[in-house]
Amino acid sequence: MTTSRRRFLTGTTAGLALAGVAAKAKGQARPARVRRIATEEAFATPELVKAWLDIARADPGSSLDVSTGILSIFDNPRPGSNQDRFRRQLLDLDTERVAEMDAAGVDVQLLSVTIPGVQMFEPALASRLAIATNDHLAAAIARHPTRFAGLACFAPQDPGPAVMEMERAVTTLGMKGFIVNSHTANLYLDDPRFAPILEAAQALDRPIYLHPRAPSNGMAAPFRDYSMGGSIWGFGIEAGTHAVRMILGGVFDRYPRLRIVLGHMGEALPFWMWRLDHMAARRAKDGRMKPLALAPSQYFRRNFAVTTSGFESPDVLDLVIGAAGIDNVMWAIDYPYESSRDAVAFLEKASLSSDQRATIFHRNAERLFRIA
């Protein structure tokens, strides 16, 4: 006797439904899906795009950022290309973005302005654009209060107004922290002129997400060939160098409660931790470096958090959890540059306990960024 496909499917569905009822009756109900908060998700504004293109077209060689991102994405990208999609999705803070989140099962995106943010402009313009960008972001969050949260940008090249904007962003706009796109005028946050910004971040008790950008002019030359300046290599080298400068420069002795977030599985720092500890101790002993209160690895666990953005390697995840501690690892996608579905699948399939998975998917983000 043969069974029709329709009868088989009907019977199977009914059987599964009855099995689910039986499991529930026995106290074995299927656990609810864990909440997913993505913590490095990019956006842009039309005003920023225009300002970036003004600089890029006037002086294409002024910065490696121009060739690695601005012109390829925003200056008439080829229709149907990835760059064309990036441009459209970066500018969208409503329909397509929310639909992509729904399709992949993403509950919340923590939004931050894409590279290079406001950090390539002269100070007054940078400060004005930071205010406008944060207002634009706050309006999007107000339209989607359960789906979006935000990191505020500011102009490090204009420290006084930057501190004022940091305070406004937290106390008035409700932002969850700050985004700094690595170097500013080829300088890094260990430079004394940025001290007011670090003091403000510590006083406001909000983390700074230290996001990569193309290598600064002082280190850019070897990265100009083979498309090395972008996400394939240069971005991580730039941000990792920035973080190491902050550690070895004693920033976290001066600001012990300052929190820095690194994307992309820690920009290679977890791999380097043993050697950083080893060589820092040697250099302090022979007088080549000022002694630090802690070993670099201890600052990494105390002052840093790491996200998985754009990096879907199980082996690297294990390394990062070991170096940073499970309570300092957060999930991220790197939308729109990476696939939301792939990022979800990566963490769902990772060799983690259900408690560890929930910790990385949402608990750490809720705690560190104060996301309700």
UniProtKB/TrEMBL annotation:
Annotated PROSITE patterns: TAT
Signal peptide segment: none
Keyword terms, alphabetized: Hydrolase, Lyase
GO cellular component: cytosol
Any coiled-coil regions, as ranges: none
Pfam families the UniProt entry points to: Amidohydro_2
GO MF, one example: carboxy-lyase activity
Residue stretches making up the Amidohydrolase-related domain: 97-371
Name of the molecule in the record: Hydrolase
GO BP: any one term: secondary metabolic process
Domain of life from the UniProt record: Bacteria
Taxonomic placement: Bacteria, Pseudomonadati, Pseudomonadota, Alphaproteobacteria, Sphingomonadales
Keyword Hydrolase included in the entry's annotation: yes
